Amino acid sequence: MHADEELASILVPRCLAERRAYARDRLEADFQMWLATGSDGHGAHLIPVAYAWDGSALYTATFVKSRTAANIKARPQARVALGDTANVIMIDTSASLMEVPDIDADIAEHYAKVSTDPRTYPEGTFVYLRLQPRRIQVWNGFHEFVGRTVMRDGRWLYDPVD
Q1: What does pTM read for this prediction?
Q2: Which of 55, 65, 149, 162 is most buried, taking the most CB atoms under 10 A from its CB?
Q3: CA–CA distance from 150 to each of 75, 141, 160 (Å)?
Q4: Rama region for 121: left / alpha / beta (φ>0; ψ in -120 to 50; rest)
C-alpha cells in the first residue's frame, strides 16, 4: 500500500455536533430499539421493542407481568441501543412505569402507529415504560471511541468529555 492510499483509508471521526445531531435524528426517525433491564438475582434481560420519542424521553410498553416490568420495579434503570454494531447509539436511562390511562394522548397515538396499542386491551394487561436518557453515546467504529459521549447527566453536551 502506498502512503497516499494508507492516509485515505484512515477514517475521520465525526465531531461532537455531528454525533449529537445524528443521535437526535435517529431518535426522531427510528421506532425500534433493544431494551436491557436487570435486577438482583435475575441477571440481564434484553428484548427488542418499538418506541415513541417525545423529544426528551423514550416510551415503550410491555406486559404488566413481564420480566422487564418486574426489573424496572426492582431497579428503575435501563440501557437502550439503537442501530447496529457498526453504528450504535447507546442510551443509559432512568426508568419508570406508567399505567395505560396515565399516558399522554399524543405519546399513546405515536406509539400505536409503530406497535400494538395498549389502550385497546383490557385494563391491567400492559404498562408503559418512560425511559429518561441520562447518558447517550454515539460511535461507528473504533476510530470514534474517543468523544462518543453526547449526553451526560441528562444534558446534551457541547464540549467533549471523553
Answers
A1: 0.91
A2: 149
A3: 24, 16, 8
A4: beta
